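Q: Hi! Curious about what Dirigent protein looks like structurally. Here's the sequence.
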Amino acid sequence: MNNANHLLLLLILFVLTLISQGHAQHHWGKEKVTNLHFYYQEKLTGDNATIVLSGRPNDNASANFLTFGAVSVIDAHLTEGEDPNSPLIGHAQGLSVSAGQEQLMLVFVADFGFTAGEFNGSSISILSRNPLLETDRELAVVGGRGMFRMARGFAFLHAVNVTADITKIEYNVTVFHYE
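A: Let's find out. The predicted structure is below.
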């Protein structure tokens, strides 16, 4: 291929890139950053538990949520404030898999669906490793729906209260999405 053909090919690729970028901007709108703050309230025991052990390693009848290989289903409350009786703004529904053999670590997959307020009907999707023994940690936002369609971002977590019965985590989330 001679230099003229290379130049023509480069020009065509440049024009196609400009067209595709312009189309994406037109179709999705302007990128926006939203900061969210809420509390994740998980109840581990009792009749109204919000996490249930649904799978355990074959050779371990006494496995719990944290045993390597355990799979749990989650439907935790998201609240405005730290108090569990503060206004409910949504639910975190998904799975956690205990995946750390050498350290206590979950793989956490959940849809954080908002049922009240400005983001009612929208959700963010989180898929990330979750090292439980760290008081402060970061999870990845990998998608969303509604107002958070095409979302990406991160969630900073701070463990407020963790006991044998409850887990209370403060979430500060930064979401990049389109208007």
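A: A fun detail: The chain has one domain: 30-178.
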